[in-house]
Design brief:
Order of helices and strands: HHEHHEEEHHHHHHHHHHHHHHHHHHH
Radius of gyration: 27 Å
CATH architecture of the largest domain: Up-down Bundle
CATH class of the largest domain: Mainly Alpha
Shape: globular
Oligomer: single chain
Number of helices: 23
Number of domains: 4
Strand order of the largest sheet: 1-4
Number of strands: 4
Structural class: mainly alpha
Helix content: 55-70%
CATH topology of the largest domain: Growth Hormone, Chain: A
């Protein structure tokens, strides 16, 4: 619930309200119903089209006409502006005047935020694989709280000047993004590793519900607190109690087993068994311990990023998942950033967007639990691609009727957001179930890092590509979504399968187009309870070495 609050806060704290040039010192109230206040100084449409490379709307609100001493009409850029306070009392855009030629300052802050997402994904993912899920998640929450307060209180243009405030704020947002993504990736992996295979899907999909619920919490705060600084520190106070989660959340038993912390893992599993009023199976735990000793010897060189590309099957799965994450984040953030064009006030638009995400989760929930991950993802990505690629003829059919076009645009936007949310949520669950435990956080971290590149492209494409052609971003999203739908058919299905512990477990799943040979499946804990064969002696290093060598390609 915390990550969406921190990610989407920018939509309100740095919202860009309607604005116009300030005509005099007494001109402090924006009122679009009385255009006579500024129409005389506003450049006409013909001049803007003939002499400016920006849109007519941007030209008329960023420039004004002046008459020189010789009676010649000239156009000059505005240095002061009047902002509409219909929806926002005071935003960071107004405080730093990040409009017109200074819009770049707003874009830089958000792009650096997404860069922080990339950095946090990879580094906190690796740290969590090395030092544990629980301590890294606690550090991330603490960093989030501290940087949240810095972002709220330090930017003081009058006290420190623009540049010191801007630099400190941007750096704080970068660290905030790192910690936010660290919580998202590490927390997701932690809770899915704490449950058994029967409950892993319910746990994973519940995270997505809370992601959308977090957005609803945010919009409630933003609706009642419309001044950016008060909203920022209020949200920081709201997330402060989550620091104490460190004393509530347990460490992952799977991670402790992979690190050979058997005593701690046994203690935790005994506690879980006691809480669930079930007997602790010591024999099954001992077999799991022996198997882990064997896999540890086999994969002593497999920890780290290179392990994702060590074998042919693992290489193809990793590259495919990286591409899927890039596409889905590009599509999701590209569509989400356009909710302002739905024709409603920003709070209602944001609420509808969050509700569509919840409806998407409700729709895919039974499908994922019965059909699997791959087919629903394929359908969602394909449906998005079809709608995106046929949106032009659909809109053209309603050009002569403004009301009909508005209704169709709304329906199409809702459908695009619905399918984008569906595929976005599925790939998160799907990837987590394909990466083995020893490198799961690393794999998810790199996926998230690549995804941030997609998010940056998706966020900026609406501004850049629409200057060439208004429908070009949507066409781009459709083509990429179609490719993602086709490539996902190669991946294996993970329905009703235990989380893979080792690379051999992942390879045993295979690919749809490649036949697996010579891969020994590592038996998971649940299957061992029914397997009565004697496990190999972990002390027999020669036998284990031979087994490892047979598994190499």
């Amino acid at each position: 619930m915390l990550p969406p609050i921190m990610v989407y806060t920018w939509s309100f704290t740095a919202a860009k309200p309607s604005f116009r040039c300030k005509m005099s010192d007494n001109d402090t109230v924006f009122n679009s119903d009385i255009p006579g206040l500024f129409n005389q100084s506003q450049p006409d449409e013909a001049y803007c089209k003939a002499n400016m490379k920006i849109s007519v709307k941007e030209c008329q609100r960023c420039y004004r006409k002046i008459i020189s001493e010789r009676g010649i009409t000239q156009i000059e850029p505005c240095n002061e502006f009047v902002f509409d306070r219909k929806y926002y009392q005071y935003t960071l855009v107004e405080e730093w005047l990040m409009v017109c030629d200074r819009t770049i300052f707003r874009s830089i802050v958000q792009n650096i935020f997404f860069v922080g997402y990339m950095v946090g994904s990879i580094f906190f993912g690796i740290f969590a694989d090395k030092y544990g899920r629980r301590p890294i998640m606690s550090v991330c929450i603490l960093l989030m709280v501290v940087t949240g307060f810095i972002c709220a209180f330090f930017p003081q243009k009058k006290a420190f000047g623009f540049w010191p405030s801007y630099i400190v704020y941007t750096i704080s947002r970068f660290i905030l993004a790192c910690s936010t993504r660290g919580i998202s990736v590490t927390g997701f992996v932690l809770i899915t590793e704490l449950v058994g295979p029967k409950n892993k899907f319910l746990t994973a999909i519940s995270v997505k519900y809370f992601f959308a619920i977090g957005q609803l919490f945010l919009v409630v705060f933003a609706y009642f607190i419309r001044e950016w600084r008060r909203l920022s520190w209020t949200l920081s106070i709201f997330i402060t109690p989550f620091i104490f989660f460190h004393f509530v959340l347990p460490e992952s038993a799977r991670w402790m087993m992979s690190k050979r912390h058997y005593t701690k893992a046994e203690k935790l599993l005994r506690h879980i068994a006691k809480t669930n009023k079930r007997p602790f199976d010591e024999e099954a735990f001992q077999r799991l311990k022996n198997e882990q000793e064997k896999s540890t010897l086999c994969q002593s060189q497999q920890i780290g990023v290179l392990a994702l590309f060590q074998t042919k099957i693992m290489f193809l799965i990793s590259i495919n998942l990286f591409f899927q994450w890039f596409v889905q984040n590009l599509v999701f953030y590209g569509i989400s950033q356009s909710t302002g064009s739905w024709g409603f006030n920003p709070y209602l638009s944001f609420t509808i967007s969050a509700l569509v995400e919840i409806l998407s989760c409700i729709a895919i929930h039974p499908l994922l639990n019965r059909v699997g991950r791959k087919l629903p993802y394929f359908i969602a990505a394909l449906c998005f691609a079809i709608i995106a690629l046929v949106i032009i003829p659909i809109q053209n059919s309603a050009l002569k009727n403004n009301q009909r076009q508005t209704l169709l645009t709304f329906i199409l936007n809702v459908l695009l957001k619905f399918f984008a949310s569906g595929s976005y949520n599925i790939i998160y669950i799907y990837a987590n179930e394909l990466f083995p435990t020893r490198i799961r956080n690393t794999g998810m971290g790199i996926c998230s890092m690549v995804a941030r590149i997609g998010a940056i492209v998706g966020t900026t494409s609406n501004d850049m590509l629409t200057r060439v052609w208004i429908n070009l971003p949507t066409i781009l999203y459709g083509v990429l979504s179609l490719l993602a739908a086709l490539f996902v058919l190669i991946l294996p299905e993970t329905l009703n399968k235990s989380l893979p512990q080792t690379i051999e477990d992942t390879e045993q799943m295979g690919l749809a187009c490649i036949r697996i040979r010579g891969v020994q499946r590592t038996i998971d804990m649940e299957e061992k309870q029914f397997n009565k064969k004697e496990s190999p002696n972990p002390n027999n290093a020669h036998a284990l070495k031979s087994t490892c060598e047979r598994n190499q390609y």
